[in-house]
Specification:
Layout: H1 2-21, H2 30-53, H3 62-71, H4 85-96, H5 102-120, H6 127-136, H7 139-143, H8 147-164, H9 168-181, H10 188-194, H11 203-224, H12 231-234, H13 259-281, H14 287-307, H15 310-315, H16 317-320, H17 323-337, H18 341-363
Helix pairs in contact: 1-2, 1-6, 2-5, 4-9, 5-8, 6-17, 8-9, 11-13, 11-14, 13-14, 13-17, 14-17
Amino acid sequence: MIQAYSVYFVLLSILLYLAVKGKFEPGGEEEVQRRNYLVVGAASVALFTLVVGMRFNVGGDYGSYFDAYNDLDIFELRNTTHFETGFYYLMASLRLLSLDYPALFMVTAFLQIYFVYRWAYDYRFMLPWVVFFYFTSLYLFESMNIIRQALAFSFFLYSTRFIIQRRLLPYLLFSVLAFLMHKSALLFIPLYFVLGRDWFASVKVQLGLVLALVVLAIPIIGYLFENFGQLALLLNYVDYANMDEQTDLFFEDGGGYTAGYFFSLGVNLIIILYSKRLKEAFKEQHFYLYYNLFFIAMLWGVIAPAANSMVLARAFFYFSSLRFVVLSFFLYYLFSVNKDKLQYYIGTGLVAVYLLWFVMAIANKAAWCAPFQFYFQ
């Protein structure tokens, strides 16, 4: 466990240091910031790739990827695995190069973080917060677990620039690329046509929806989702077809309301209260686009204990993963846009709680993030 704490906190500290040293302030000289970001981004991506990519048996799905890669018959002319075609050919290409299994985890770690940093270039003023919440929101641990879906999410996150620019063709190309990694990425295609407006403008309506679901989740929603695990067959989750529980910081065995549930709910309510101000402050950055998707994740977070389904948790992964994005906007706003004592106290409190949450996640081995070891140990 000591090694796990050391690896995660040293990596987080170095990436934060690089992000802060970049001095990516709004209104800075574009060429200077571009060069700085190139250096900071390259160093950060390389370090992340080495550390995360060289892990061994970290992440709940690590073993299945390990076995699939080592058992792959490169002389087969067809996909003999249960993985999507794109991921299969990624593995086959690495095997044809006679690369050992660490290559797979290094390449996937590289692609996951590379496209996050490519996306963050347009929001480089808040890069330190992106790094901080990438770790402390626990997205890092999820990405080391459900590797293919995390790859698809990174492609989608980068492709949101094409939604903003109204460039359908490159958006579709990235959607197809994501689909080749995980078929659930088909969800991305219709998003291009519906994310062009602010769907959740009213704070009162948002609060009403969330609080109503809090009341109705157990008696109604739990019943509706009781047999929803059959969706596993459609989403290629054959291994999860008979699984109706997820054990981590946010779920208890057999479901239930835990500290994680109330923590997430409380943070969500605070974000809702600030949502109108955030949309106004970041209008040019099209914050509403990310907020639209994340609000869907808020609603899912309320019903998650009642639904108690791994399959549904995976289906909503793309929405809930935007937590680190929305939190980055929020904390930048609290500390750098609307500076007053109340905002400072709220921001400081959130930073402290998320750091504590990160520590607790490692201690509880959330998403099988610990113990951490390298393949050469």
